[in-house]
Amino acid sequence: MPTRWGLPLRAVLPFEPREADYVTAGGHPPRGFIRSKLMRAARSYGDQVREHAHRRRLHIRMGAAQAMSPQVASVAQRVAAQRGAGVRSHG
């Protein structure tokens, strides 16, 4: 979902004014801050960002390996073709 700045919306955080005020201004954390809906949502989004970054790094590394080795490129093409056809290897 694009925003008014043209960037994709990656997360929707719950409206919790006391917790948000603590995050932006500091001070003493509100009671139950760590278990709040805001912090649970932020942790969940952080997990998604880490997973996306990990997949992206693997994608970049695989591209570099394919460029350096025709054998790796051949194997990667066969795997991609099998995934595209819905074939799964068990082993």
Describe this structure in words.
This protein is an all-alpha fold and 91 residues long. The chain has one domain. The protein has three helices and no strands. The protein has helices at residues 17-25, 37-68, 70-84. The protein starts with 16 loop residues before the first helix and ends in a 7-residue tail after the last helix.
Descriptive labels:
91 residues; mainly alpha; 3 helices
Portion in strands: under 5%
Principal-axes shape call? elongated
Radius of gyration, CA atoms, in whole angstroms: 21 Å
Oligomer: single chain
Mind describing the biggest β-sheet? none
Helix content: 55-70%
Number of helices: 3
Kindly state the number of beta strands.
Answer: 0
Distance separating the two termini: 39 Å
Total individual domains? 1
Explain the layout of strands and helices:
Blueprint: H1 17-25, H2 37-68, H3 70-84
Summarize, please.
By secondary structure, the protein is mainly alpha-helical.
